[in-house]
Amino acid sequence: MEYKQLGKTGKAVSAIGLGCEWLDRKPYEQVKETIDAALEVGVNIFDVFMPGREVRENIAKALGDRRGKVMIQGHIGATDVNQKFDISRDMPNVKKYFEDLLRIFGGYIDFGMLFFIDSQKDFDAIFNTDFVKYAEHLKKQGDIGHIGFSSHNPAMAIEAINTGVPEMFLFSVNPAFDMIPSEKYIFDHFEVDTGFGSDSANTLFRGIDPKRAELYKLCEQKQIGITAMKPFAAGKLISKEHTPYNKPLTIPQCIHYALSRPAVASVMPGCSTRAQVYELMEYFQASESERDFSEIINSVRSDFKGACVYCSHCQPCPMDIDIAAVMKYLDIARLDLENIPPSIRSHYLSLDMSGADCNSCGRCESRCPFGVPIIDNMSEATRIFTGTE
């Protein structure tokens, strides 16, 4: 295992961590097997956002007296009222679920994560209320070591970082979310002092979405560490059928992509078996050529017409729908319609404007370089996530 500094927290975290979502609703024996395997290979950071008491207690039981060997990202605002995964800003519920997490894991959480800042509404409900004061109180009294947050939205992540409160955050990092098709949009230049438009090329950000590039640079400037979720885009990037590229990326290539982004200290894929943990460790034996992702992500499949690559060329939407976000959640759901992750359903339902708000104006489809049937997809998302037409 390799270890990297997580921004200004002073903590050295394993380059590959463990996202624990896939341990939810698994028998204790399977949870223990996975936790044991992670510890055996040197994983020292877990993400535990799931609000259910059973999965939390199973993880804590599997850790046993090894709790001190692991740093935990615990999320403030993740609840399961009425056994339904939810994002809560109601302070009594927020406190109830986080304090239960503290109890289960021995009275201390290493990284207290402000849960899910993906919209201005989310930002305001956290930073303009007692929510953030609660997190600061937890840190002051030693219940949490550091304040972090989670987000999928680079603009909101920038806004959160600029408050000066967080020291690190959990962010979705993979080339499908980061990159823009090179034949349609190239972002070549970014300088710390001058921003966009410099004559000095920075090949690290070639083809990347400008707002995400700005976020990565800001994190380096302010020493804000990133732990990366969704490195495989829920399996889409390593699937021959679903990849947006000429061929699927490998697991080592996806991991290397995320770890090569500025400020990223740990990649946190989800695992639910020992074998999956061991498969991730093959990254450290992979050669440089086996890790190299550049050739693949520079070419979009010629037969990819009709598939979204989340480039946001379809924006702006007159109904203020974040079309790329709807499509990300829809594509993940399509991978296994019988087992849609509760977090994905909740993330979709938390959108301010969703597929149900589409007015079928067609402006988005006229702008899309890949011929995505966006209007039909908005209807499909509504049907899949809400059960209505």
Give your account of this protein's structure.
The protein has 389 residues and is α/β, with parallel strands linked by helices. The chain has two domains: 3-297, TIM Barrel, CATH 3.20.20; 323-386. The chain is 38% helix and 15% strand. It has helices at residues 28-40, 53-63, 91-104, 120-127, 130-140, 154-161, 175-178, 210-222, 251-259, 274-281, 288-291, 294-297, 323-335, 342-349, 363-367, 374-386, and strands spanning 3-5, 12-14, 18-19, 45-48, 71-76, 78-79, 86-87, 109-114, 144-151, 168-172, 189-191, 195-201, 225-229, 264-267. The strands form four sheets. An eight-stranded parallel beta sheet has the order 3-4-5-8-9-10-13-14. The chain has a two-stranded antiparallel sheet with strand order 1-2. Strand 9, helix 6 and strand 10 (168-172) form a beta-alpha-beta unit. It is globular.
Quickly count the domains.
2
| Gross geometry | globular
* Helical fraction: 25-40%
Number of discrete helical segments: 16
CATH architecture of the largest domain, by name, is: Alpha-Beta Barrel
What would the keywords be for this entry?
2 domains; 389 residues; alpha/beta; 14 strands; TIM Barrel
